[in-house]
Write a structure and sequence with these properties.
This protein is globular. Strand 1 (2-6), helix 1 and strand 2 form a beta-alpha-beta unit. The chain has helices at residues 12-22, 41-46, 66-75, 87-113, 122-146, 159-173, 180-191, 193-201, and strands at 2-6, 26-30, 54-56, 62-64. It has two domains: 2-81, Glutaredoxin (3-Layer(aba) Sandwich), CATH 3.40.30.10; 87-192, Glutathione S-transferase Yfyf (Class Pi), Chain A, domain 2 (Up-down Bundle). It has a four-stranded mixed beta sheet with strand order 2-1-3-4, covered by helices on one side. Helix 1 packs parallel to helix 3, helix 4 packs parallel to helix 6 (159-173) and helix 6 (159-173) crosses helix 7 (180-191). Helix content is 56%, strand content 8%.
């Protein structure tokens, strides 16, 4: 059975949605960040990076990082049709996921929530935080344009939509007004049974 190590509401919610979409047995292992469990020996033995999401596969091997886990789940569960074989759609899917995880999550959100990680000078932290806001809103506008006339990012529902859902989830959580196409995409995502199940299981409904 697959095991997802997670901490709500991190980007692991996107992987949790994918696990529900593929419909195979899995279990959850919550990592308590409040008590720094991600840095304790038991968890570092599983994932030395001290991060989530982490996926422990049936053979005991471990996958880390959202893009790697999402692609592996999609490729090993082709019947779920979560990753297109079309070269252009595949490239656009990976392009979106890389931007969401490497720029919006790792840079924009980090600046917004933890400006002190970028400077110890308190008088400069508001500027750092504002940089995060601007980066995030730029991302919202880019995806709004990409979603013009489409229900899903690359045409068909894919792992890219699960990545975008995490970004949308936090945008709503901090009460940012999402542009029209992104807001409609977020509403469609919340209608999916897999998303509803994840939200309930993680206490986020």
């Amino acid at each position: 059975m697959l095991t997802l190590c997670y901490m709500p509401p991190t980007c692991a919610i996107g992987i949790h949605v994918l696990l529900e979409e593929i419909g195979k047995p899995y279990q959850l292992k919550k990592i308590d960040f409040a008590h720094h469990e991600q840095h304790k020996p038991d968890y570092l033995t599983i994932n030395p990076k001290g991060k989530v999401p982490t996926l422990i596969r049936e053979d005991g091997s471990v996958l880390t990082e959202f893009p790697a886990i999402a692609v592996w789940l999609a490729l090993t569960n082709g019947e779920a049709k979560l990753l297109s074989a079309d070269p252009d759609k595949l490239a656009r899917t990976l392009e979106a996921i890389d931007y969401i995880t490497a720029t919006l999550h790792a840079q924009a959100w980090a600046r917004f929530f933890r400006p002190q990680n970028f400077t110890e000078v308190e008088s400069e932290q508001a500027k750092i935080r504002q940089q995060g806001v601007e980066m995030a809103h730029r991302g919202l506008q880019l995806f709004d344009k990409q979603l013009e006339g489409k229900s899903w990012l690359v045409g068909d529902y894919s792992i890219a939509d699960c990545a975008l859902f995490f970004f949308e989830f936090w945008s709503e959580r901090v009460k940012w007004q999402m542009p029209s196409n992104v807001a409609k995409h977020f509403a469609r995502m919340k209608e999916r049974p897999a998303v509803q199940k994840m939200l309930t299981m993680q206490g986020l409904a």
